[in-house]
Amino acid sequence: MAEQAQFEELARQLSAVGAVKRDLGRILPPECPTGSAAVLTLLGRHGSMRMSKLAELLAVDMSVTSRHVAHVAERGWIERSPDPADKRSRILHLTPTGEATLVELSRRSTELLAERLGDWSDEEVDQLIRLMTRLRDSFGDCRAAAPHPRPAAATAPAPGTAKPPAEPRAAAAAAVTSAARAPTPVLEPTTTRTPA
């Protein structure tokens, strides 16, 4: 098992991943902010779905999801059609224009990663993919999972007594959970993989 110092360094490195996500966000066209890119990516990956499912996958409330959906619908990237099972609900579908936009976003992301990781070997890139996939699997579906319970405080330490060291996994878990909840502009190829 890894040492506490390793988990602390991992937590620092995971928080720095935000800089990578920001760079990927900067290459998005002005008419497609990160929230819109996330909507297109999730519809491309999972197929047609209800707004409630999209909100769950985005890990944001319905009002935020509605704004993202309205933005992409205004541009003709998605259609909202009545749900045959429940006429009060709408099913969201990518349009051909939305699919073309998703292909363009993916191209931009791929080019940036190829440029920034140009000095990495194929083996290093494969290793990073394997390790990131394993990390996501270790945390499961962070969007749908309840927060990890904090251990109950026994009794307050006496004044002047040192606090016990924090659990190393708790710091790493907090960093990963925080990073996993934000919609990501990294556009993966269309798959049917469950969200992480």
Write a brief caption for the model.
With 196 residues, the chain is mainly alpha-helical. The protein is 56% helix and 9% strand.
What is the helix/strand order?
HHEHHEEHHH
- Average pLDDT, all residues: 78
In terms of structural class, how would the helical and strand content be classed? mainly alpha
Helix content, binned percent: 55-70%
* Terminal residue distance: 24 Å
User: What's the total count of β strands?
Assistant: 3
Number of helices: 7
What is the 3D form?
A: globular
Q: Describe the biggest sheet?
A: 3 strands, antiparallel
Radius of gyration, whole Å: 20 Å
Oligomer: single chain
Question: What share of residues are in beta strands?
Answer: 5-15%
Q: Which regions have little confidence, pLDDT < 50, spanning 5+ residues?
A: 145-196
Biggest sheet, strands in spatial order? 1-3-2
